[in-house]
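I am sending you the entry underneath: sequence plus fold tokens. Let me know what the token row says about the fold:
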Amino acid sequence: MCCPADASPNIMKTPSLAARRRNTRLAAGLCGSCGKRAPEEGRTACRPCLDIHREDSRRRRQRRSLQCLCLDCGNAAPVPGRLRCKSCGESRNRRRRTRRSERTSQGLCIHCGARPPAADRSACRPCLDNRNQHLRKQGELRAAAGLCKQCGRNPAADGRVHCRPCLDAGKASQAASVARRVTAGICARCRQEPPRPGSPHCASCGERLRISARDHMRRRTAARRAQGLCTRCGKVPALPDADNCEVCRDYCRVTALARFRRNSAARQDAGLCVRCGERPPEHGTLECRPCKDRQRAIASRGIPPLPARYTVTELATGTDHGTWDSLAEVAAALAYAKLTPEDVEIVTDHSPTATLIAW
């Protein structure tokens, strides 16, 4: 039990024995931990002691991570999808923001503070390469163990490389970031141009995202089709002579019908053509004149109306005198063979489409 006088603000607290010993070693130009060697430049400990401290910190962080505790204090549970509790996370972010702002104002790398940053980046190239290499190696080790690549504690979700809490936290953080940028009137991707009406991205970013999503979908569809899987879910084999499984096919039919009915009702309420949604319909109908003409066009019926052809066959000998495209050519062929229409059989080949629309 401590003395009540220790809590008095007027009493000067004396440094501990370890602190006095550390200060004495540093004043003598020695390592503050071992007192045997000179410290490294800009540090208070020598290289062997720094390596020992780093290894101890790594083991302590690993132990707390397995126990689902905050990596800094080790007393409270971390925030879902994060590695630290709320108070430690806020303190860490506050210190990081202060350090980043100081180094940015000085024109230095925000990580090391020793070199100028790379072009259009806030960190220097060596720091960027080291960070990318570390994250890649760490992600590979966690993925090989079946753990989340973000936290390394929970198993990854089905078909993903992150666990469900990290996915939910990342989605919420991304949604909040997009909302802040849209509220500020800037593109959520490039943060430079104003967004388009009804979209969080500007015109150039939206076009790049559309092309990227289209190419990704095409590659995924081709890979699943080559494996004989359903191109939509990619989990079960597709039906014969089809790209989807039975469940996905029925789902696509139902959703397509519901979307058509929803769009048709909205266009009809707006007084527009239910097919194109661009022009008002004709009186007493639901479609405009261009859409009606396009639906009634002969080209939309499938087989085009091919021209009729005439085959000439001699009755006496059965000789085939060729197939001709018009009656004038048939008459010329009969005159050349010195035959009359009574001596031959003329077979007419009509297109099925021409027969259907002849009436």
About this structure: Confidence is low (pLDDT under 50) at residues 1-9.
